[in-house]
Structures are given as C-alpha cells and as structure tokens.
Amino acid sequence: MWDHELETAKILAVRAGIQIKEIYDADTMEVSYKEDASPLTAADKASNKIIVDGLRAAFPDYAVLSEEEKDNRARLENDYCFVVDPLDGTKEFIKRNGQFTVNIALSFRHRTVMGVIYVPVTGELYYASRNGGAYLVRGVFFDNISGEPKRLKVSDSTSDLRCVMSSSHGCEQMDELIVKYNIKNFVKMGSSLKGCLVAKGDAEIYYRFNPTMEWDTAAMQCIVEEAGGVFRQMDDSEMLYNREDSLNDKGFYAINRRENRLR
User: Fold this and answer.
1) What is the pLDDT of residues 73-102, one digit of tens each?
2) Phi, psi dihedral angles at 123 (to 5 degrees)
3) How far is 4 from 34, CA to CA, in rounded Å?
4) What are phi and psi of 13, to 5 degrees?
5) CA end-to-end span of the chain
6) How would you classify residue 109: left for phi > 0, otherwise alpha for psi between -120 and 50, otherwise beta?
7) In this structure, are residues 222 and 247 in contact, taking their beta carbons and an 8 Å threshold?
8) What is the SS3 string spanning 158-226?
9) pLDDT at 55 over 90
10) What single-letter DSSP state applies at residue 217?
11) Residues of the chain with pLDDT > 90: what percent?
C-alpha cells in the first residue's frame, strides 16, 4: 500500500547519506549549536535539503515534520506526515565513530506506517512498511539500490538477554534494571541503530527512559514492529506521531517479546 512512499524514501535516504559521508570524510568539520545546545553540522543541513525537497516534490499534499525545519502546525490537519531526522546521531557523527543514520518515516492518522533507516558508513539500508515486513539490504552506496533484501525477524530468546543502550545519554533507571535483572550482555551504540539491532535479532531489549523526539523513533518503530518486535511508550501506551507536541516525554522500549518487558 505504501510502495511509492517507501521507494522514494529509500532513494532519498541513500542520496542524503552519500552527501553526509562526503562531509564526514572531509578533513575539517564545522559544528554550530542550536538554542537547545544540540550540535548542528553542514551534514545535517545538506541531508535535510535533499530529503525535504525530494519529499515535497514527490508528495506535495503530504505534510513534513523534520528536525531541521521550522514546524508548520498545518501538518496537524493532514492525515499524512513524513517524519524526518536528516542525521540521527549528530554527536556520533562529530565523534567520527560511524554510528549515525538517516531516518525517514511516514505517519498516517498518527501511526507510523513506513520507515527507512540508512547507515552512511556501512551502506546498510533498513526499511519496513505496515503489514509488508521489515528488510535489510547491505552494501548500498549508490541511489540505484540493488542487492538482495534480507527479511528481518526479532530474536525468540527470553533468557541471557542482550541489551543495547545509548552511547551518548546515560540513564540511572537503565543502570538499575541491568543490576536488577543481572544483565551481563549489553552494548552501547548511537542513533536509531539500537532499534535496528533488536529488529534483526542481535539484541532483545532497548529501553530509553530519557525524552526523545518523534523523528528519533518513527522509522525505528515501524521496522521493529514489522520484524515482530514490540515498541511502546514506557507506560505501555501506543506511540503516536504528527502530534502537537513532538517531544516523546514518556520514554519508550523496543523488545523482541512481551515476556521480556522489564519493570
């Protein structure tokens, strides 16, 4: 049902990622800071232009909510809204650790129905659409996307749980859960890659108590759910999109099975 939107988002994500990688590989990197003290680079701006211009050209009747665009509240009257993070993990980009992504999602009547996550450094392209499954194509470095897609499926494990955590945002609540459940296998990682690990079965649990934004989670949620996982707010309510307040203030969790819900 969302084939055109998905194919367009995949191409734009890769194009933006190619531009990001060129800036990433340059000898110098200029960093400025927004009013909320979050970093901003030329890569954020270049990626945003490629994606937003492309989406508006292809789908002029859809709204767009992007981290790097001034919010137009007219989107609240639209059933369709693209939710975009042109560079998720700007701090990781600045650290040059490769753990950053391009995130493009589509919400329909407040629910995420399509998600694309592209990893510029590795060429991994994750994508999903509602009731269409979640997939990974490796080695994508050109926007004429080729390669055999691998269908993603979460792990079936309910023991010896593998936990993925943020590398840039410490969390006392998560530290307490690790001790409470004696979790010994965990990895710290940046950006929406954490949700991708759950989706492809390389981790069972990802908890985020700290606030995030809609564009941080929309694409990841669709991919996790279509891979068979569970994605909810920390109070177990559904995460909705194209809201008046874009702050995800309740936190969220992405897990492989309901039995692995930690409290």
Assistant:
1) 999 999 999 999 999 999 999 999 999 999
2) 75, 20
3) 34
4) -65, -45
5) 37
6) left
7) no
8) CCCCEEEEECCCCCHHHHHHHHHCCCCEEEEECCCHHHHHHHCCCCCEEEECCCEEHHHHHHHHHHHHH
9) yes
10) H
11) 78
Note whether 106 and 185 are within 8 A (CB). Answer: no
Which residue is listed with tokens 């589509």?
106
Residue 170 has pLDDT above 70, yes or no: no
Question: Kind of pairing, strands 63-66 and 80-88?
Answer: parallel
Residues 249, 263: Cα–Cα separation, whole Å: 18
Question: What is the residue whose two structure tokens read 């945002």?
Answer: 169
DSSP string, 23-63: HHTSS---EEE-TTS-EEEHHHHHHHHHHHHHHHHH-TTSE
- How far is it, in rounded angstroms, from Cα 126 to Cα 116? 6
pLDDT digits (tens, 9 = 90+) for 28-50: 888 898 888 888 889 999 999 99
Closest of 57, 58, 142, 44 to residue 90, by C-alpha: 44
> Six-digit token pair at 184?
């010994």
Angle at CA of residue 102, ends 37 and 190, nearest 5°: 60
3-state secondary structure of 161: coil
Q: What is the distance between the alpha carbons of residues 115 and 103, in angstroms, rounded to a whole number?
A: 7
pLDDT value, residue 57: 98
How do strand 162-166 and strand 185-189 relate by DSSP bridges? Answer: parallel
Residue 242, classed as helix, strand or coil, is coil
d(CA 128, CA 159): 27
